[in-house]
Specification:
Layout: H1 4-18, H2 20-23, E1 32-34, E2 51-54, E3 57-59, E4 63-65, H3 73-89, E5 93-97, H4 109-117, E6 123-128, H5 133-143, E7 147-152, H6 154-159, H7 170-179, E8 184-188, H8 195-203, E9 208-210, H9 219-226, H10 242-252, E10 258-262, H11 268-276, E11 281-284, H12 286-294, H13 297-317, E12 331-333, H14 335-343
Parallel strand pairs: 4-11, 5-6, 6-7, 7-8, 8-9, 9-10, 10-11
Antiparallel strand pairs: 1-12, 2-3
Length: about 350
């Protein structure tokens, strides 16, 4: 019989599937419209998809498989398939939270499979922002991870019946950044980030920030469904969307800081729009997982192939030889997003 922690991971997978259509009723990237240039003056062969995220962290494609799951037999099967596809398509891949292995060591096999199936690929290990140095070093070592992703998830924890209630994380994050030999990415889990949050992270030496906005997997809805004591329904729309978060980030980003986007990415055009709004790379979780669970391995295999072709051609369409050049592409905002930007003094 699986542990209580493994059962919780299975509940997350089941509820993410249940709420997929509901949380994707609104497509917030529709509020971003790109300006067409009929004379890009380049060929598709001029486009290079490689992205340098840090001095010692380069990915071959600007989008990657974002953190999803781990810790159960079902998660092992999913992670095996995702890792096989990451290996085939040369995509970076983030693990689900490895925090579970300190409570349930048997859960490690569901994460270990990722490195087994993708021995030379770029892997981001994932832990809570309150992880100890020993936990971080162990997670990186066990997976031979190329980076560590620290997730910050206050809203989820507060709704989760067994969640944390202490959120003094910044000093620990700064300590881990200073002590670890791999790059550290600090990532939200679908509630977005404000310029205040991003400023705090930058002053604590964090230079890789994943704003992970509202619009994708909704952990408020998932944890509220699991919570049988208190109803947090009023928080189901909590947080900033991914486009809002990217505008927030653009207004405050400084120096070596690089912004990553995730949350509600459902097409190659979304990947491009995120880049136009300032993202250096884009993580995709729920959309890929939904295809894998409902249509199968071959369908996701084909989707990943198509996305890589389309992203490259869209870059050529916009006259950009690399993903980083998207920051110079002109765009206009829809009424709601423009109103948000003006009220927040973001443009």
């Amino acid at each position: 019989m699986e542990s209580r922690h493994a059962q919780r991971k299975n509940e997350h997978l089941s509820l993410a599937a249940k709420y997929y259509d509901q949380v994707h009723q609104h497509h917030y990237f529709d509020q971003v419209r790109l300006i067409h240039d009929s004379l890009p003056e380049m060929t598709t062969d001029d486009v290079d998809l490689h992205v340098q995220l840090a001095d010692n962290l380069e990915i071959e494609c600007p989008f990657y498989i974002e953190a999803m799951t781990g810790g159960s037999d079902q998660a092992l099967k999913i992670n095996r398939q995702l890792a096989q596809l990451a290996h085939k398509h040369h995509l970076a891949m983030a693990t689900g939270s490895l925090s579970i292995i300190s409570k349930d060591p048997q859960a490690f096999s569901s994460f270990e499979i990722i490195r087994e199936e993708n021995p030379d690929g770029i892997i981001f290990a994932n832990l809570s922002a309150n992880a100890s140095l020993d936990q971080a070093v162990n997670a990186i070592s066990l997976l031979k991870a190329n980076a560590l992703e620290l997730h910050i998830n206050v809203a989820q924890e507060l709704i989760m019946p067994e969640g944390d209630r202490d959120f003094n994380w910044l000093d620990n994050i700064q300590y881990l950044v200073s002590e670890l030999e791999v790059p550290v990415i600090v990532k939200e889990v679908g509630f977005g980030m404000s310029k205040t949050t991003i400023a705090k992270l930058q002053t604590h030496d964090v230079h890789l920030i994943n704003v992970s906005g509202r619009g994708g997997t909704n952990f408020a809805a998932i944890e509220n469904r699991r919570n049988h004591d208190i109803n947090f329904e009023s928080l189901l729309d909590w947080g900033q969307t991914t486009p809002e978060s990217l505008l927030e980030a653009h207004s405050i980003r400084r120096g070596k800081t690089e912004i990553i986007a995730s949350g509600g990415i459902i097409s190659p055009l979304d990947v491009i729009k995120a880049g136009v709004l300032g993202a250096r790379a884009v993580g995709v979780a729920g959309y890929f997982l939904n295809i894998l669970q409902n249509e199968g391995y071959e369908a996701l295999d084909q989707t990943l192939s198509e996305w890589q072709v389309i992203v490259k051609r869209l870059l050529a369409l916009l006259g950009c030889s690399s993903f980083t050049e998207l920051s110079r592409v002109e765009y206009v905002l829809g009424t709601d997003l423009l109103s948000y930007a003006r009220q927040r003094h973001l443009r």
